[in-house]
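Please, does this match?
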Amino acid sequence: MKKLQEFEKNSMILFVLLMVANICNYLFQIAVGNLMEVEDYGIVNTILGLIAILSIPTTMIALIHARYTAIFAAQKNEGGIAAAFHLMFRFVMGVSTVLLLTGIMGIQKVTDLFAMESAGYMIGVLVVTIMNLFFSITSGTLQGLKKFFPYGIQTVLSAVGKLILSVFFICLGWHVYGVLAAICVGTAVAILYGAIQMKEDLRNVLRYQGRNLVDTRELWKYVISAMLAQGCVIAVTNGDVLLVKLYFTDEVTGVYASASVIGKISMYVSTAIVAALFPMTVDENQRGKNTFPLLRKALLYGGTASFGSALGMSLFGKYVIGILFGERYQKAIIYLPYVCMFIVPLTLVTILMSYALAIGTSKMFEISMAVGTGGIFGLSVLLHETVEQIMVLAGMILIGVFAVNMIWLIRIKNRQRYGKS
């Protein structure tokens, strides 16, 4: 009972802070959408989608680092925490180098694929992605140590910096480049804050001269699991705008992007629950306790919040779009219910992913989500007559993925209850 109350307390702290960050992110979208031409706004959201997909290693590293930090913190092993930090930092340096080299070679191809007017946009995407890798180190440490308040503040700083500086740089006439510059500066400030908040832990890292306490074989197995699971979820979350950009005009992409931004409110309200669920489930699992009550709470709170928000956006989205984005984006209202139809099951799938990775039983999730992601992108080649058709396809596949994984997790729970292998 105490742990469940702690889950609710931590979720509330994160909910408040991450909602502030989400509000800033939405204000960013509103400001950019109103200050830019519709076509430029579509390009900005295409760039943000590419950053999210290229940042799959970032979210993976943050997740892995949070897991091992939480494990060693539960064991009160400061040496283990320092060893995990050393290992993750070296990993980030290696990934950054590979990303830089491959990115430079592929910049022009990606620029041509998405019909962007300048390869400079892709250079900016590459810089932001590499900075995000270092952000993952500080955020993973804070999350793993269950320092939820500074973890949330770090996210807020990144969002506030992106919002304020984007408006400033766009007003200076920097347009899309202004947005990229704002994201870079905001991320840098957040990284600095995170480093300051974990200064005591950094001292332990610098003093640590011991051996690596992380099981490397188990680590790489977990890396592959996290990469597949996180990669598929991120690809689906951000792939909707990219799919629309591939099959439709810049104007349609810009209008759809505003609907996507509004519709995804129903997903972002549950991000605090996912952030709190992961380290707490790792901690409970390490102590050999039943973690299923935490999953039930997360699905209840996250599912209710997501569905309620989606319903509200579907009913009152016309007024929201009109107030926030103006008359130019009123066409987006036809897309909004369809965005919500795939975002709600995606929210539930994301919660299941966090839980499965926390308890180290994610094989079924990886397989089903990989098949689902492949189905969404593969079938969209054949079924893309309308934007709505793509969204319905995505929603139906995600509902199937959620059902398969719930059945699988319930079977695991029952086996543990009755002592079966």
The mean pLDDT is 81. The first helix runs from residue 2 to 35. The radius of gyration is 21 Å.
